[in-house]
Amino acid sequence: MSADKTQPEKLSVDAFLASIEPDQKRDEARQLDALFRKVTGFEPVMWGASMVGYGRYHYRYESGREGDFFATGFSPRKAQFSVYILPGYSDFGTILDRLGKHSKGKACLNVKRLSDIDMDVLGELIAAGLKDLDTRWKVHPA
To answer: Given its phi and psi angles, is residue 48 left (phi above 0), alpha (psi -120 to 50 degrees) or beta?
Structure first.
């Protein structure tokens, strides 16, 4: 069984956030970091070179595949922020309806600017995602 490509790294989250360009994206990334810290109570860890993760869980699928991954987090991509609520967004339609302008993938929510969304609703979504994940696989501090 192959290991997951994305692994925790011994990189500084603060240095990573400080390196984000332009200034507005850097400021918004710091706002996201503050929100994730507040909602989760977890210290962030870099996963790969560009994902900031909060908490960790161990998964084991019926196929036998297993591994560890961050419980929630974000990545400041060039065109937008990717927000990760794991294992996905299937049960959060009522929260997403109140969030604001976004698009979504299987386990990632995409937001161009934080001014497009309600940050309190995002906090609610992060908390709901952690609670849901913890019913499937136990969430731990990283």
So the answer is: left
Q: What does pTM read for this prediction?
A: 0.91
Domain locations along the chain: 13-140
Residue 104 tokens read as 């979504």
CATH code for the part of the protein at 13-140: 3.90.1150.200
Structure tokens at 119: 């940050």
Which H or E run includes 81? strand 81-85
Q: Crossing angle, helix 119-136 and helix 23-40, to 10 degrees?
A: 50
pLDDT band at 66 (very low <50, low <70, confident <90, very high): confident
Q: What is residue 139's three-state secondary structure?
A: strand
Give strand pairing partners of 83.
74, 109
**Whole-angstrom distance, CA of residue 73 vs CA of residue 100:** 19
Both tokens of 84, joined, read 């990760």
CB 85 within 8 A of CB 62: no
Q: Are 117 and 31 in contact (CB under 8 A)?
A: no
pLDDT in tens, 32-63: 999 999 999 999 999 999 999 999 999 888 88
